[in-house]
Design brief:
Elements: E1 8-14, E2 17-23, H1 33-39, E3 50-55, E4 65-70, E5 75-76, H2 80-94, E6 98-103, E7 106-112, E8 119-122, E9 148-149, E10 157-158, E11 161-164, E12 168-173, H3 182-190, E13 200-208, E14 211-218, E15 222-224, H4 228-240, E16 247-252, E17 255-261, E18 268-272, E19 275-281
Parallel strand pairs: 2-3, 4-6, 12-13, 14-16
Antiparallel strand pairs: 1-2, 1-19, 3-4, 4-5, 6-7, 7-8, 8-18, 9-10, 11-12, 13-14, 14-15, 16-17, 17-18
Bound molecules: ligand LBFN2T5F.
């Protein structure tokens, strides 16, 4: 039987990014990709974009090791919106206002503020090297890479910037983020052979030097109302192209995030709300073997 059967969960969202938080710090049991897919089931499950599983801390001074699952059962190194949800949950239970977490992508500091309903997560430093993203072949300059879809002489989307924020991101610069069929092009680009570990695909429109609008097709989760790491990747990619300041507001379908690419240590800070919806216990029938 799955470790998640009857286990308590909290359904939350980070500006519309659907998040389920499970605290398993009192257990050594592992969540499997099958468990993660079962939780997302539309029949009796709790459909989500990301499942955030808190496990016992591995390092002194950290609150938890967090495993992040997409709804297709794959694991992600980073999830900005999910982290704000985890942070809110922990802070409300413990009264803390700061904490450090570990994920597959490394250590993350988080704190409450700058306003009472806001949470800030230090998402770490972006990586731009083609092997770090990773790409399947060498690109010396990842500010724009050669990649396009549509007719060769009149591509629909082309020349994305690529960035790792602990997970791979490709950002296509467009005039109108709603003018493209992301549901159709997203899966093609996510699974393009140039991305050996697949990628999160974002359409971004630079409104002015302080403001960008985006829509994202998430690796392993599809079209979402918000992707925090995509907002960070976009802010960094735009600043790297000198098209925006290092501190910007990002508008996503589900709301707004403040992103600052800090000069002094290269870290990216993401600030936004986190919303609690309901809590419950997983129905064990979800994890029963089929047949
Ligand atoms: N929603 C997340 C990112 C989720 C991970 C992504 N789908 C991946 O596999 O890289 C966010 O808010 O950052």
């Amino acid at each position: 039987m799955s470790a998640l059967a009857n286990h308590a969960f909290a359904k939350m969202n980070g500006i519309g990014n659907e998040i389920v938080v499970v605290d398993m710090r009192d257990s050594t049991a592992k969540v499997t990709p099958d468990d993660a897919r079962a939780v997302a089931s539309a029949r009796g499950g709790v459909p989500y974009d990301q499942l955030m599983v808190l496990q016992k801390p591995r390092l002194d001074g950290t609150e938890a090791f967090i495993s992040i699952y997409n709804n297709d059962g794959s694991e992600a190194g980073a999830c900005g919106n999910g982290m704000r949800c985890v942070v809110r949950r922990i802070f409300e239970k413990s009264g803390q206002t700061t904490a450090t977490f570990e994920t597959a992508a490394g250590l993350l500091n988080a704190w409450r503020g700058p306003a009472p309903d806001l949470y800030t997560v230090d998402m770490g430093a972006p990586k731009f090297g083609w092997q770090d993203i990773p790409l399947a072949e060498e690109f010396r300059d990842t500010r724009y890479i050669e990649l396009q879809i549509g007719p060769i002489d009149n591509p629909i989307l082309h020349s994305p910037s690529v960035v790792s924020m602990g997970n791979p991101h490709a950002i296509f610069w467009v005039e109108d983020v709603n003018a493209h069929d992301l549901e159709r092009f997203g899966p093609l680009l996510e699974n393009h052979p140039i991305f050996p570990e697949r990628a999160n695909i974002t359409l971004a429109h630079i409104v002015d030097r302080d403001h960008i609008t985006i829509r994202t097709w998430e690796r392993g989760a599809g079209l979402t109302r918000a992707c925090g790491s995509a907002a960070c990747a976009t802010a960094v990619a735009a600043a790297r192209l000198k098209r925006t300041e290092r501190k910007v507001e990002i508008t996503l379908p589900g709301g707004k995030l403040g992103i600052e690419w800090r000069e002094r240590d290269d870290h990216v800070l993401m600030t936004g709300t986190a919303t609690f919806e309901f809590e419950g216990n997983f129905d064990p029938a979800l994890f029963a073997p089929a047949g």
